[in-house]
Amino acid sequence: MSDDYEIKVDADGDGSWDAHTVEADGHGGYHVYVDQNHDGRADFVGHDTDGDGLLESGDYDNDFDGRFESHNVDTTGDGWYDEQYTDRDGDGKWDEASADTTGDGNWDVTVQDNNYNNVFETVHYENNETNPYASA
């Protein structure tokens, strides 16, 4: 861990900072590890690729089975994830993608492959304001 690198992480989203370990990646960035269920294995791995103290992406083992099924990305550089990709059936392919297009911390649109046939056939919108097909 670098003595001069500091970051605060709330991996579980409960509003409090989580205990974590940090590892330099050798290229100016850092990996941040959080063991959310205290079993000795990291359940969250965050990636600060430029060492600015904001995570550009993070991987989650949501059900603590040792497999990281969700990948979140901060595309705006503000330190908040605005895209999420999830493999719900464990086949290594994304079955769900969500986006926060308004920056309010909620997923505004989610597309899902509920048949697990590599076709995203279901679209969910947070509300009618973000749904281009909603009637006024």
Automatic annotation (TrEMBL):
Name of the molecule in the record = EF-hand domain-containing protein
| Polar residues bias spans | 99-112
User: Which organism is this entry from?
Assistant: Virgisporangium aliadipatigenens
What GO molecular function annotations does the UniProt record carry, in alphabetical order? Answer: calcium ion binding
Q: Where is this region: Disordered?
A: 71-112
The family database entries (SUPFAM superfamilies) matched by this protein are listed as: TSP type-3 repeat (SSF103647)
According to the lineage, what is the superkingdom?
Bacteria
Query: Which portions of the chain have biased composition (kind: Basic and acidic residues)?
Result: 85-96
